[in-house]
Specification:
Layout: H1 2-27, H2 56-66, H3 79-82, H4 130-139, H5 148-156, H6 159-169, H7 176-188, H8 196-201, H9 209-219, E1 248-249, H10 265-268, E2 277-278, H11 300-309, H12 319-322, H13 333-344
Antiparallel strand pairs: 1-2
Length: 361
Amino acid sequence: MKVNKIFLSGVLVLIVLTLSYCKKDEESPGVLDTTAYSFDAGRFPPPNFNGNLPTKEGVKLGRMLFYEKMMSRDGTQACASCHMQAFAFSDTARFSKGLDGKIGKRQAMGVFNTAWHTNEFFWDGRAHLLRDQSLMPIENPLEMDETLENVISKLSASDMYRKQFVRAFGSDEITSEKMSLAMEQFMNTIVSNQSKYDKFLAGAATLTASEENGRRLFFLEYNEFIEDSSGADCAHCHGGFNFSNNDYRNNGLDILSDIADFGRENVTTNPADKGTFKVTSLRNIALTAPYMHDGRFSTLEEVLEHYNNGIKESPSLDPALRATMSTGLRLSEQDKADIIAFLKTLTDESLATDERFSSPF
């Protein structure tokens, strides 16, 4: 019995010491941890991180900031409020609602595969890098309506955040630059490459007859003269592994006099860019309704009908789309249904539930 009592006493002492050590560790300021984040590009080419390689602690901090409501003036909104994981980090509203019920002017873009965006950010490309984009909604009066100075002050008052900035950047001094770098790191890790189509390319899935015909029409070029050899030519703008050419195009939504949002022209001041917007990725397109920069289309059926027979002329219209106006794409109802069936194979079901991208709080 003495031996057992001595043994139990030793165990209790060990438990007390362990708990004490853990408590001290939690209260400690921490140290810089430059452990690289385990980034898996899958079949995609290696991305260019623009000198901001994701680290385990940097990504953790960025994830916290992405879901942090202190980033807004009244503490009610975070980046994730308008970029919801269940919808491929986009918004289901045509225009997102900001503080005090204010409404934005464009549909919220999906946030995934940003590590492969090579030509500015936002619909009009006004942000050069993702780190630049990450700060702009904070100060936008239609979105979070806060100042960077106030955000820094609020975060600096948090022991949790000061410690995490130490782990990510080696100092508890919080700056807007560090915030932007951390959010860029997190968003760049939101990779979507596990769709049915990806599995099909890897030989691990088979497309249905409808999906296969949709795939054929998607990649087949438009032919004005031979209808049987004419496709939807979607890959003209939505080609490549990420189904986007990263360019800015006028896709014929409005005639010149009806163009209310000048898009890229607001940034470049070049009249040739009037009504041109960023070509978005078609990955997860079934999750990101409504569609277009102004969310005018509620369904994929409406989108396809626009391209089939709804293109409108204006000086900056994409020449490839202008070429289809004489006949339209001549897609039958079955053709459109098949293309939509194919587009749905681009949905990455795991993206909507992956805990690595969900709220850490």
